[in-house]
Design a protein that fits this description.
The protein has 255 residues and is mostly beta strands. The protein has strands spanning 3-7, 10-15, 21-27, 30-31, 45-48, 54-55, 59-62, 65-68, 77-78, 88-91, 94-99, 107-115, 119-128, 132-133, 137-143, 153-164, 170-175, 183-197, 201-207, 211-215, 221-227, 240-241, 246-254.
């Protein structure tokens, strides 16, 4: 079952079966997201939960217990399990997921979607059944070419960027951002992302999260990802979520 919303000249489709992702966003007849492919990592706008980005070698230590996760990108675990899980439809505007194995903890996750003629807002919450690490985010794949005669450009400003090691994982050190191309996590945001396809369409992105990953290396797409911490945060002493506690992220796309 696909959830489809419409408002004015905009339609949005959510695919609960294929990772609870925003599978399509069509504005004035133009599809702005990469359409379905065989690679679950590479299309739509999918939820990243209970972690975003890489966890080095799929390993971390939490509360004095060593944990080992399956790896799904080279030698590392990446982007959690929401995007490869089948979500339950709760009602016309929300879907839910119970997190468990291979994540070694239990949590209840829910997403809500609200579409108007000028914006789409997505909200995700996670309620921990037990103390655990938890990160939330989304990974949208925006098409560079949407058929309007102009290629995608990005306006974005950040004061700091996480330094990467030779495995493309943050060292924990913050540095001044260099010029792109990027596959990097930024914080100290001064200008939230604005995507433009010339004068034809402009998208303004905003989030309650204070970290953004910009991945603009692909020639066909650009990923602009809000998330609550930088990749591999669990190995840098990420703050835990206590049993019964709720954590939340909101992501809005306006035009």
């Amino acid at each position: 079952m696909v959830l489809t919303f419409a408002a004015g000249d905009v339609t949005a489709s959510i695919d609960p079966v294929r990772g609870g992702r925003l599978a399509s966003l069509v504005i004035d007849g133009a599809e702005v997201l990469v359409s379905r492919t065989d690679d679950a990592l590479a299309w739509g706008a999918y939820p990243m939960v209970p972690f975003a980005g890489r966890i080095r070698r799929g390993r971390f230590r939490f509360d004095d217990v060593d944990r080992c996760l399956p790896v799904n990108l080279g030698p590392h675990a990446i982007h959690g399990y929401g995007f490869v899980s089948e979500w339950d439809v709760i009602d016309d505007h929300s879907i839910g997921l119970t997190l468990g194995e291979p994540w070694p903890f239990v949590a209840e996750v829910r997403q809500w979607f609200e579409l108007t003629a000028s914006s789409l807002t997505m909200t995700m919450t996670a309620v921990a059944h037990e103390r655990q690490p938890m990160m939330l985010g989304w990974h949208p794949w925006f098409r560079r070419d949407i058929g309007v005669g102009h290629q995608l450009s990005l306006e974005f400003g950040a004061g700091r960027m996480y330094e990467l090691d030779d495995e493309a994982i943050p060292t924990g050190q913050l540095v001044d951002p260099p010029g792109g191309p990027w596959d990097n996590c930024f914080t100290d945001i001064s200008t939230e992302p604005v995507l433009r396809w010339g004068p034809a369409l402009e998208l303004r992105l905003s989030s309650t999260a204070d970290h953004w990953v910009i991945f603009d290396e692909p020639t066909h797409a650009m990923c602009v990802e809000p998330q609550t911490d930088a990749p591999d945060a669990v190995n840098r002493g990420q703050t835990s979520v206590e049993a019964g506690a709720t954590t939340e992220i909101r992501f809005s796309i306006s035009w």
